[in-house]
Sequence to fold (138 residues):
Amino acid sequence: MFSQTISITIQFGDCDPAGIVYYPNYFRFFDNATAGLVSAALGMGKRNWLEHYGIAGIPMVDTGARFFKPSSFGDTVQIRSEIVELGRSSFSVKHSLLRDGEVAIEAHEKRVWVARDAEGGIRATPLPDEVRRKLGAQ
Fold:
């Protein structure tokens, strides 16, 4: 399935008083990595694919992580993100954060393709065939 690797440099503001990345910031990194992954697969920026497909977004309905090695201010890390499952209206992503070539964190998330209903709420809607094809690309 579709995958992408990005590099980020840990900033001072990402860290806690102990000098390591404050763990919720990893989930911010992964959220950005997922948006970038979908954007790369669809060949357009997030604002464009939200409008193009008429959706409200791709909210997360499940997430988790296992932490093996901390990262600190100034470290450059790689996040490899991969679509690992396509459902009717959802998809799952696996993230591997590598520091110095070793896995520091393994994370997962499940996202749902949602549209606005008549009352302004959101509801799951099937992944369009085109999106399914592009997310499933090798």
Summary: The chain has three helices and seven strands. The longest strand covers residues 76-86. The helical segments are 23-42, 46-53, 129-135. The chain has one domain: 3-135.
